[in-house]
Amino acid sequence: MTILDRGLPSPGVSPDPMVLLTPRSLDEALHLLTAEGAAVLGGGVGHTLRRHDRHRRDPTSSGSSPERDAISQTSSDPPHKRDATSLVSVGSLPELRTILWSGEHVTIGAGVRLGEIEADERLVRTWPIVTEAAGSVATGRIRRLVTLGGNVAAGDDSHDLPVALAAAGAVLTVRSVSSTRTLRIGEVNDLGGDELIQDVRLPIPSGRAGSAYEKFLSRGVWEYACVNVGAVVRLDDAGAARRLSLAVGSVTGGPVVIDLADLRGSVAGGVLIDEVARRAAASTRPYGDVKGSAEYKTRMIAEFSRRAMTGAVRRAEETPRSGGEST
């Protein structure tokens, strides 16, 4: 057991201690999470964020720094767990550190670091949208710390992995002492205080499939995305789209999956891509902030949706024809 300082206190204020718990197994971690005030600690980035945020809010603080800001932009703690009095460290548990391939799915443990996802050669081949999203987070140093589960569980609408995973149709396995259940990416804010994400499960693409991730930073690498988009497509041998999926982030409370069902069967070309971009812009209601006005973001949503879908179609077209693609 380790006692941590919960934050940098104001002058004359005693530090507020926090207990760090280091379970040896997933089952032990789940039991520890049943205690009042317990919260999950993955790679430790979210806890560091809170310490730096307190420092910045202190009138005597020396201010922020680029590295501090980068950490702030990769917070891994959901809002309902930010008043924790103890942290259950799960980022190194073997049960959460695997990437497993089965017949139709790949299952990525919640403790796998984004840097590991970015570099996994089989994931690069099968789900480039996921590896591109992982590789776009902050810097390499940060990606070696941030866990997949932490990036998803934060429930932040501008985080990278939730957008890519929503477009890919990923499912979360969520565990507590008493239950195991599945959630979609957009349901992550339904996590209970005694639950954690065990893994993320993705279907293994078949046929002429392609995916791509695009992210627009209006100011620089140290900030949240202004707009981020993930696209997935599967083509038949005639070049018609048999699957289309597009998710947009940084616009509202979570990834927005655009309804493209009626476009199935359309030829995957410029006309289809333009329509996907138009629908993405029309289906989202971005908020204005320091990164851009709502009108500006709407234009960027259309542009980066076009880029993402173009990239996904190009990759699908590069896949050899099968001689008979089913719908």
UniProtKB/TrEMBL annotation:
The keyword Oxidoreductase applies. Residues 48-57 have a biased composition (Basic residues). Keywords: FAD, Flavoprotein, Oxidoreductase. Residues 60-77 have a biased composition (Polar residues). One of its GO terms (molecular function) is oxidoreductase activity. InterPro entries: CO_DH_flav_C, CO_DH_flav_C_dom_sf, Diverse_Substr_Oxidored, FAD-bd_PCMH, FAD-bd_PCMH-like_sf, FAD-bd_PCMH_sub2, Mopterin_DH_FAD-bd. PROSITE patterns: FAD_PCMH. It holds the Pfam family FAD_binding_5. Residues 44-86 are annotated as: Disordered. It comes from the Bacteria. Residues 13-207 form the FAD-binding PCMH-type domain. This is Carbon-monoxide dehydrogenase medium subunit. It comes from Streptosporangium subroseum.
